[in-house]
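Most newcomers find our protein records easier to grasp once they have seen one. Sequence and backbone structure share a record, each on its own labelled line. Nothing more is needed to start thinking about how sequence determines fold. As an example, a complete record with its sequence and its structure tokens follows.
=====
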Amino acid sequence: MAFTSSAITSKKDSNVSQGLILGRYELGKLLGHGAFAKVYQARNVKSGESVAIKVLDKEKILKGGMIGHIKREIAILRRVRHPNIVQLFEVMATKTKIYFVMEYVRGGELFNKVSKGRLKESVARKYFQQLISAVNFCHARGVYHRDLKPENLLLDDNGDLKVSDFGLSAVSEQIRQDGLFHTFCGTPAYVAPEVLGRKGYDAAKVDIWSCGVILFVLMAGYLPFNDQNVMAMYKKIYRGEFRCPRWFSSELVRLLTKLLDTNPETRITIPDIMENRWFKKGFKHIKFYIEDDKLCSVEETDDDVGAYATDHSSMSESETELEIRNRIGPLPRPASLNAFDLISFSPGFNLSGLFEEGGERSRVVSGAPVSKIISKLEEIAKLVRFTVRKKDCRVSLEGSKEGVKGPLTIGAEIFELTPSLVVVEIKKKGGDRGEFEEFYHRELKPGLDNLMAEESRSAASTADADADATDESCLHQDWE
């Protein structure tokens, strides 16, 4: 669903722009419009945050047979949450309208920047690296954009790239029995030769071709395949006829030749792109996680959540706890669970749900001190090379391995059940459910069970010592 910029709004649009959507968002200026929707800048009246809202007309969608298309777009945007992809925050609806509340990207289209002339190599490389990171993330989740071009690449306040407009995207579930896609789509100058052949295509390889055209445009300032006659342009694309300008380095020319290979079978893959010498210069893998349904950068939140980078491998347990207290202060008392909390943990009034296991959430009752539970979670995380983030009685464990649904991220929150017992609620915040269950049963639960056993033995030995001391005291009194 493409949108064209528009600085002119009708009187009706002007009235709409001053309205309040469902009491939550104040509409501002019109940013663009398409056949079925208009996009406005808006403001969240509660937080003051700027957002973009795509307003779709239900009647037009129904008449155009676009219901399935809209549902698929929503599902795709929920599936691909990445720092270099425009975020969908929420979807709202009234009797006549559907509202997509999305991230507002202030910097405009990358196309506007390229239209002024070619970019410096370092700048073009940065944008290409971010584009490939986003496309790789999408492909790992079975999502294929199929309309990548500079007009669909936006720039934020920091000059970072954001992929937008997933209206023509496809998901792996749409692949036919032959393992290929057959829908003709995309923008002519960026479309891959196999799409022109109309015999079925691998959508991942089509996206890679488009990335190659984009890289050429960023570096050259013009298209590799261009002609006023569309059919003549298609012939050039089909034959792979393009010429690199003299200012392209030999490394870049070799990469572009692999990206714009007319044979999809031998065209370079994303893993190979990421290992390419030209690509790797200055490249950094993006680390992020989902917290409270929001996308968070690792670098931005380290100080906020009390993360620390000290190596504790040579410290004793007591020294480690003391060092932690010196850094973050005494731990606050965990929130207490009342009767209503206990009931809310379980379906109906069956309190067995308090101790449920499986799925994407589990709970463990422990008699260990909160500080020792947190230390045990950190110890487990260190063994499997997970990052730890802490805030009060909440701990987040984040894996670095890129799974099918993103890195595995686990949240643990500690609640007070009685003065001597706590409930540790563990839930999957990101990643694959199967990976979560395996990690929980292989690492987390045994570790917490061992901690309980250690505490029980410690309590028993303390009780025995107290008993011996009492017996000795009584014996001493008898002797006197």
Q: What stands out?
A: The chain is about 40% helix and 20% strand.
